[in-house]
Design a protein that fits this description.
By secondary structure, this protein is mainly α. The protein has one domain. The chain is 51% helix and 4% strand. The protein is built from 4 helices and 2 strands. A two-stranded antiparallel ribbon has the order 1-2.
């Protein structure tokens, strides 16, 4: 679920602090979010794997970390069940401007 949270944080960042982002940038982030959510809901491991960076580090709620291969194993085993997605605005605060 942390990957999804990261996606929401990135989206929130662009929606809330769009001084440097163009409308095309915003649309690209929204499109990637839609693709990511669709892959989760349809259990499309090929699509999800294509969206995740090879060097991603997933940190779960328990504090355990997993690389992309480990994350994909859990996903393919249906360790997590995604039944629906809803968009919510979450406040984002930072001591300095986040770098993407």
């Amino acid at each position: 679920m942390s990957v999804l949270s990261i996606c929401f944080v990135v989206t929130s960042f662009f929606l809330g602090y769009s001084q440097g982002a163009t409308q095309a940038d915003l649309e690209q982030v929204k499109q990637l979010e839609r693709q990511f959510n669709t892959a989760l809901l349809k259990k499309d491991d090929v699509q999800l794997a294509s969206l995740l960076a090879d060097d991603i580090v997933h940190i779960g709620f328990e504090g355990k970390s997993a690389g992309k291969a480990e994350y994909m194993v859990f996903f393919k085993l249906s360790a997590w069940q995604y039944k629906s997605m809803s968009r919510q605005r979450c406040p984002l605060s930072s001591l300095e401007r986040p770098r993407l």
